[in-house]
Predict the structure.
Amino acid sequence: MVTGPPIGLSQLEPQPPKWGGEHIVPDGFSRSIRPSAAVADLVEAIWDWDIPDRDAATAFTIKVPPSTAPYFVVQYRTLTHCRWQLGGDSCDHKNYGHVLTQTQSGTFAISPRGPLGVITVRLKPEGAARLARASMHELMNVKIGLRNIFRDHDIALLEERVMESGSSSERIACVERFLFQNLRQDREDPVFSRASSWLRRNPGLRVRKLASLLDVSERQLSRGFRATYGTSPKQYARLARIEKVVAARKSGLGWADVAYACGFVDQAHLIHDFATIVGGTPAEFFGTTLRWGLRGTEAAPGMADSYNPFIV
């Protein structure tokens, strides 16, 4: 349950730079666009999943692995079917058209049921609370309808503008403008923001060392981090490492090289952690049909802005 009053559009609207960001490259089932400067503190990456042909769209199943980042999602064609699964446990999610969500364990499988049109925004964990007014643990492995967070009128207006747009750039400009207008001015505690950033860059950093670098006690770090991000620093680092595994594997590295690049002791260590968090082995998750030839999937383990975590 999300608490607090719904968020309305800001009464003060500074003149933002050009909306719509910069096209990066189509990657086979979506178009990546680099976020505009106005939302750079909040948005890490944006994709437009744009497949108007029904048969082509329904041929896809899109897997969303666990992540440190929440996602802001706006659909503009047929609503997709979404199932969460962790090992033998699974559940079907309510078909909200527009959602805020985060996967911290298991996998979301998204199955188009008609022409596909979805704007997917990966939010920076350090800035997401300025938008959501919800604790991160409330987003864990669930989809929260945007109408439960923002005013119904504002979401209806966003939906109308996105559906009337004629291009990816126009659609994403509408979403960016909405995000910009609904940002709160307060910011996260810089201690925990730095902790999040450091763990995403270096998941092997020990909690004791991280606390020392931040000049706080381990207890203070663990309690404040959990309150901010809905999980412990150690589990957050494990999620960050899984993100690096996905990026490294999609860049074409073999499993031994993936394990080394992502800081695992060996492949057995990688497989164990991956199975615990994702709910299956790496081979089961990636399968044999991963489209290695897709443009735009190249990504170093450091996760560039254009890194695409989705598996089709």
The longest strand covers residues 43-51. The chain has eleven helices and eleven strands. Confidence is low (pLDDT under 50) at residues 1-14, 289-305.
